[in-house]
Fold VOC family protein.
Amino acid sequence: MLDLQNIHHIAIICSDYEKSKKFYTEVLGLQIVREVYREIRESYKLDLALNGQYVIELFSFKNVPPRLSFPEACGLRHLAFSVTHLQDALKQLDQLQIAHEGIRIDPHTDKKFTFFSDPDGLPIELYEI
């Protein structure tokens, strides 16, 4: 068995780098750790942290194929972030005019959660802890 310690990061490829950079930093509030332009690949790599913990690598590439989200496709299903007060988070999304689903209840934990999407349609879950 491998001696895994934790998840190091999640890599996301976006279609519009500036739009996604703004979404992940200004809407989700992730902090920029490092931003690199890789000239040979004509691609950006943006390292992002949440509360000081490195969590996401955001990549840009030319001519990326669209992601299949609906119906669900094989692969990464969604990103999930925990929040203390889901209703407050939804009010903030409403103020930013970001569409989201209504509140659902997890039938196994009785916790509240909902989904919205990043600029490329990647589902993002907010789960109240």
The CA atoms of residues 84 and 128 lie 5 Å apart.
